[in-house]
Amino acid sequence: MQITDARHTVNHMVHHQARLDTTFAALADVTRRGVLEQLRHADASISDLAQRFEMTLTGMKKHVTVLERAGLVITEKVGRVRTCRLGTHQLEEEAAWIARHQELWSARFDALDEMVEHLKHKEKTDVRNKRT
Amino acid sequence: MQITDARHTVNHMVHHQARLDTTFAALADVTRRGVLEQLRHADASISDLAQRFEMTLTGMKKHVTVLERAGLVITEKVGRVRTCRLGTHQLEEEAAWIARHQELWSARFDALDEMVEHLKHKEKTDVRNKRT
């Protein structure tokens, strides 16, 4: 691998990890998940969202900024109203990370099950051998 | 719905949301995700993990505590060594939340596409009608 290729790969990995950090952090809040659920149905202004979640405008603005940085929400100001809609981030990398964890989790526990079965079988055989 | 049922449902929802908060926050860190990736292959002591991630013992302990609270890691102290292994939390609710977001995201964007197509078609027809 050439140095430029290696540097590109490292850069890509760092960005990938930073994106996962930002997205998972954005999802780690019940209000922010609620805002996304709301925007799946219809666009909404920040004041609509503040009202719906019984929150100050400033509090809601902060949540929307976190979602915007994660690419989960896009906002647009028309006149005095800032409208929020779903961003283009489809959570593909996050879904893939979780799926991979689940897959390897199962593999790991299957291996442990097998080991337990093997030990049980061995114990039975040992007992039988002692009897004979 | 009886009051006890309703209370049960509300409790369930609050717990569900709190669990999502805790898990997504636990996943929002590159070292913690790295620890989980490591434990998918083999159990490890906290000092093994600290060494591998070039971190102080105290720093690693903090990360492991966050993972433990989220049910993603189980630790067991034997003598002076605390061993970490994968917890029983399989991230099912988190995967379901993301899958639902992706599904409704697509539905919302399909609806927008359809609206754009409809407007394009309408424009064409209008132009044609004006010409005749």
From TrEMBL, chains A, B:
CDD domains reported for this sequence: HTH_ARSR
Keyword annotations: DNA-binding
Gene3D superfamilies assigned: Winged helix-like DNA-binding domain superfamily/Winged helix DNA-binding domain
Sections of the chain in a coiled coil: none
Residue span(s) of domain HTH arsR-type: 12-106
UniProt GO molecular function: DNA binding; DNA-binding transcription factor activity
InterPro entries linked: ArsR-like_HTH, HTH_ArsR_DNA-bd_dom, WH-like_DNA-bd_sf, WH_DNA-bd_sf
Superkingdom to which the source organism belongs: Bacteria
Matches recorded under PROSITE patterns: HTH_ARSR_2
Annotated protein name in UniProt: DNA-binding transcriptional ArsR family regulator
Organism: Oleiagrimonas soli
Lineage, highest ranks first: Bacteria, Pseudomonadati, Pseudomonadota, Gammaproteobacteria, Lysobacterales
